[in-house]
Fold this sequence. Notes:
Elements: H1 14-21, E1 31-36, H2 49-54, E2 59-66, E3 70-71, H3 75-85, E4 88-94, H4 101-111, E5 124-126, H5 135-153, E6 158-161, H6 163-168, E7 181-184, E8 204-211, E9 220-225, H7 232-235
Parallel strand pairs: 1-2, 2-4, 4-5, 5-6, 6-7, 7-8
Antiparallel strand pairs: 1-9, 2-3, 8-9
Helix pairs in contact: 4-5
Amino acid sequence: MKVRRFSKIAPLLLAGALAAAVPGHAVAEPVRGPDVASWQHPGGSPIDWFSVRNAGHDFAMVKATESLNYVNPYFVQDCLAMRVAGVARGAYHYADPTQSPEAQAAFYSTVVLGINGPGDMPPVLDLEHSAGLPPAALIDWTHRYLNTVQQLTGRQPIIYTYPTFWRTAMANTNEFAGYPLWIADYNGQNTPGPLPGGWSNWTFWQYTSTGRIPGVNGDVDLNVYSGAQGDFARYSNSASPFGS
């Protein structure tokens, strides 16, 4: 992702984050994973997804598209390698509110057509740039994009954002509180801060942009799944958990 706030959270605190995310939910070993883009391929170097998986990361989010004219050049390579390594796959679109939401939804859905099966998570909208649109217009844009992606993929999208952006650019609207939330909050604590937009819980938490894990060259964003959408194997469209 393009948001950068440089603070970290100790991995041992993740269990506390899960307990705070879903009160009453049994806390198990955290389901963790990075999100990656072309930045994680310096000089064209590959990601070793077997090393990522062996280090305890069950999933990864990969940038697929941006606006109407960009496809991550490593998207297919990463998706194929993730499948072989048994890493659950997610794909996100970086929103460009200056362009048609329906056209971007169609562009994204076409590119990610091959990762909407077993082991694949729902589509993701990365919304962190308003392009100068006022809140009412950006809210309308977001509704139209999400509705189109859901029609094309048959799955309810995940919204990625960060608190300050939502509270300002989106006027802290609660119109999207029914969508799963992937929140970026690098606060160094064991749980995200107060959630924006009427969300009562988060599904994924991006807790650092400066993580280091085996198999990835350089800094990488790290995330944890809360369990808010139920068993991760089910949510990632798998008949059984990876590795079983």
